[in-house]
Design a protein that fits this description.
The structure holds 2 protein chains of 2 kinds. By secondary structure, chain A is an all-alpha fold. Chain A is built from 5 helices and no strands. Helices cover about 70% and strands about 0% of the residues of chain B. The chains are: A mainly alpha, B mainly alpha.
């Protein structure tokens, strides 16, 4: 096995588990065109991946239900309520700020005339 | 006030957030722990830890890698609690020097042609590695980030593992 094939071994794994980068994918495909050894390596790696993924099972619905029932009703809601409360608390302040900025503009305008 | 990750997901239910990852996390635990009740307990702990830790997720790794890292710690906690390290072989404990001298657990499997079960005869750390690569779809770098095993060690481990499995898969003809 030459140096290029050694590099391709990594790319083959990455190709099969879909983590390969675009540039390397092109290199691999070009290499496979003329390297029967690496084509065999690809076939073997696919078989291995199939074997490993055959063991995957669905999560039983009752397990999911029971597990998520124990997650507290959620800080998400609390946070959202807190944020919206703060927002509404800030609204009058925003109005005051806007009034002040309008007043400032008017004052500036007056100064320009003076 | 904490408005980091939760703020970003803005009202998305945690259960929906986890939906794409439940299967991989559950099967990861299932691949490391045999008792169904223990699997459910560890899955429960993992999900709660993810929920509690959402604010700490800074996006340094993918969300998937981060959640698998949490599951991995929960599995380690479980073994520490129950076996006080007696029977616990984690990926970290791989001793490359020892591997060639170990009796080959695959001999029996080859004879019985029971290829599916042959994976179960692999050492726990080997199965874990295969799971993380092919089922979880992690890169060697990501596996390094959750396990602390250097990428180079993972690479040579995969090399030996493939060498070991090659005759089996050829004979099985699947």
């Amino acid at each position: 096995m030459n140096e290029e094939c050694q590099l391709m071994e990594d790319y083959i794994i990455q190709y099969v588990n879909k983590t390969i980068e675009g540039q390397n994918e092109i290199k691999l495909i070009n290499h496979l065109k003329y390297c029967p050894q690496c084509r065999e390596e690809l076939a073997f790696t696919i078989k291995l991946a199939d074997l490993v993924s055959n063991q995957i099972k669905d999560v039983p619905q009752e397990v999911l239900d029971s597990v998520f029932a124990k997650v507290p009703e959620s800080k998400i809601k609390e946070d959202i309520i807190v944020i919206s409360q703060i927002k509404s608390a800030l609204e009058p302040l925003e109005i005051v700020t806007q009034l002040l900025s309008t007043a400032k503009k008017s004052v500036n305008l007056v100064f320009q005339f003076i | 006030m904490k408005v980091t990750f939760r703020g970003d997901v803005d009202g998305i239910e945690f259960e929906n957030l986890m939906e794409p990852y439940n299967r991989i996390l559950y099967n990861y635990i299932l691949s490391r722990v045999s008792n169904a009740e223990d699997v459910q307990d560890i899955f429960q702990e993992t999900i709660l830890a993810i929920w509690q830790g959402l604010d700490n997720y800074k996006g340094d790794s993918s969300f998937k890698t981060w959640t698998i890292g949490i599951a991995r710690r929960k599995i380690a906690d479980f073994y520490r609690r129950h076996y006080k390290d007696k029977d616990f072989h984690s990926l970290e404990e791989i001793d490359m020097e020892k591997t060639p001298n170990e009796p080959n657990p695959l001999n029996h499997a080859i004879n019985s042609m029971d290829i599916e079960n042959s994976l179960n005869t692999l050492a726990s750390e080997d199965r874990e590695l295969l799971f993380l690569i092919f089922n979880a779809g992690l890169t060697y770098k990501e596996i390094e980030s959750i396990s602390g095993i250097p990428e180079g060690t993972i690479k040579s481990r995969v090399y030996y593992l493939k060498k070991k499995l090659r005759p089996l898969l050829a004979e099985g003809g699947i």
